[in-house]
């Protein structure tokens, strides 16, 4: 499932040496923003690809909700936070 959403990012180096990436998903129907913690230096293209992969994984997890037990899955990824804008 390929989406045509636009992702913009800003980065901030933390005192721990890790890099905090704040991203915005510019989608007319469902704008979102979030944070990704990157532990090693990466090119911007790789960071955007990682964000796209994690967003797609979340979409797929939400599609696989059991109809007999319709609770949304919980996400235990302390390095990736996603919010609705």
Describe the structure.
By secondary structure, the chain is α+β, with helices and mostly antiparallel strands. It has a domain at 1-39 and 79-85. It is built from 1 helix and 4 strands, in the order βββαβ. The chain has one helix at 44-63, and strands at 6-13, 19-26, 32-38, 80-84. A 4-stranded antiparallel sheet has the order 1-2-3-4, with helices on one face.
Strand percentage: 25-35%
Global structural class: alpha+beta
> What does the average pLDDT come to?
84
In terms of quaternary structure, the protein is: single chain
Write a concise synopsis of the structure shown.
The protein has one helix at residues 44-63, and strands at 6-13, 19-26, 32-38, 80-84. Helices cover 24% and strands 33% of the residues. The mean pLDDT is 84.
Identify the notable features of this structure and list them briefly.
85 residues, alpha+beta, four-stranded antiparallel sheet, 33% strand, globular
Fold topology:
Blueprint (H helix, E strand, L loop, with lengths): L5 E8 L5 E8 L5 E7 L5 H20 L16 E5 L1
Antiparallel strand pairs: 1-2, 2-3, 3-4
